[in-house]
Amino acid sequence: MLWAIPLAPALAAILTATARRPGAAKVAALAASVAAFLLVLRVVARVSLHGHDVALPGWVGVNPLAAIILLMQSFVGVTAAIYSWNYIPHLAAGSTAKEHRYFINFNLFLASLFLVPLLLQPALAWVAVELTTVLSIFLVSFDNTRVALEAAWKYAVITIMGATVAVLGIFLLLWGLTKAHVAPQTWSALVRAAPHLPPGVVELAFVLIVIGFGAKVGLVPMHTWLPDAHSQAPTPVCALLSGVEVSTVLYVILRLWPVFTAVPGFSAGTWALAVGLVSVGTAALLLLQVHDYKRLFAFSTVEHMGILLLCLGLGPLGLYACLYQLLAHGLTKSLAFYGAGAALVATGTRTIADVQGLLQSAPLAAAGLFLGGIAIAGAPPFAVFLSELAVFRAAVSTGDYLVLGLLLAFLAIAFLGILRRIGSMLFGHPGHAPVRIPPSLVIAMAVSVIPVAVLGVYLPHSLYHLFGMAAAGIGR
Amino acid sequence: MAPLVALNTVVAALFILVTFLLMVSRQIQSVLRAFVWQSLLLALSTLILAVLHGSLELVFVAAITVAAKAVVIPAVLTRTLGPELRARREIASAVNVPVSLLLMLGLSVFSYFLVAPLLTGGTPGASVNLPLGLAALLIAVYTLAIRREAVAQVLGLMAIDNGAFFAGVAITSSSAIVEMAAGLEGVMVVLVVAILTRTIAQRVGSTRVDTLQDLKEGVPL
What we know:
Chain A has 476 residues and is mainly alpha-helical. Chain A has a domain at 268-476. Chain A has helices at residues 4-18, 24-50, 64-92, 96-118, 122-140, 146-179, 187-193, 199-217, 225-232, 235-261, 268-287, 293-311, 315-347, 358-361, 363-377, 383-398, 401-426, 439-457, 461-474; strands spanning 53-56, 60-62. In chain A, strands 1-2 form a two-stranded antiparallel ribbon. Chain B is mainly α. Chain B has one domain. At the A-B interface, helix 5, helix 6, helix 8 and helix 9 of A face helix 5, helix 6 and helix 7 of B.
């Protein structure tokens, strides 16, 4: 069952590579992503019921946290496949070969993302994380322009470097296991053995892993590649990179969190608070200097990754808020990028100052950009609003009022920054002719709005239950 | 046993020396040669540890290291980047050699300080390989930061990998499947990044990646 989830997009990639029929690639990608989503729904149901779903003990399995990640990945996978349907032919400008190359890469990238939460051994999960980078480099450089190549280069070098630094951290943790005489090298064995691991070893591993994977998550000061890569890639890829990939890497840190917090005399939570706040603050201030609306949303990702890390230092309620925020961010960020991509199709420019009167010339693009923009900025009644409230509540519960105050200030800056930029694009006199937005873009935006709006009004009990189980697994 | 431990220490010393070489060399060809030597020394150290611990898995790891890093990766680089590799020009560096050497010395001492408290009760292999592997990793990260040439940066990335695994082989023994996956992964990384480098060379006209600085805040494109 679990095998089939990454297998579906992998098969679609093989199919696309072998059957070079125009149109087949789009159908295969969509069918594979929908199949993966349905499979994930089944897995989520099983996990809610039994607390886990294991296909091959010690190798492949899913716990509540991994189920949340899979849910987010597979949903954005579906909307990205829908979005690609019209967007990629538009971008490839009639080159079938280019289109095929895109869909092969897209499917392989999706498969590698699915692998990360499915693997039960940290060393294998590391290989999968590296694979997500390797398989997405050509998606980032897809435009083949000078700037796209620059973005792809920075992305490749910084994130591969990070992952390679992190692997030594994982080796150190496994060394600790050997010293504690524990044989299986799985996440759960690490968590169980955590109190018996040598503290110095875990601390050094913590530093290497947070720096290494933090580079790929986009934590400040290792974030420099992120706005470049997340703005130069084709829009459906941006949605996957910004909404899904960074959180998938953060998942590895979350999975190891109970190991780090088990070390006596080492307060991993305080470090998380500090690093998280710095990321939120830096991103909020940099957001104000942005001239490109895709970069605007990319900086917002750095900000949200900071919030997610910060949550880890805010007690049990913080862990719950972290998971809520993680899902809300992934769903909302993809919507924001879809809106931005539609605006790009309508206007042909990424520069904020060159876009005016979008509401008149391309109302559907304007609607997507507006809804995505205010939803990601944290306005009610959308998912991020409720999840950020959960973060505030967590900060109150632990009495971290200074953190709360700074966080509120940074979020307010980011909120105003995003809204002002988007407002200037929507209103005014349109400088270009009215454009019809291709249907698949509109459908993808409409599908993405559903969970963003629903989760902004209420949290279904099943999800609440899943968050609770996952948070209990991260805390100890 | 003792002669083997001593031999491993000599190999480790050579390993760190080659890492120094890898970062100060001015020609792409000699950087590549240094990388191959570094990988061979990593494999040799792994073999010695395999004999010391009587571990068949480590023999397998050594074989994979030689195959992937000393044979396949150089071959991949030569095939995709032939002209770039043979170019006889100096690799530009942001920092000059004497300062770099001094910094590397500092990094080596620093990694001993970091690791020393962890080594009580460890195997003799770990007490040599862990600090030197960490030192090689830090030096390679530094190399990556100061090199301005794409090919040199790719080899820097793989040198970080060698550093991590030099420490890794002495402290853990993962399963053959994990090792295979990691070896294959390294080859894929090099293949993809090499193709990207070739595209940059064709498109931008040079592999001086430090000239790629169009994406930034503050100035509209």
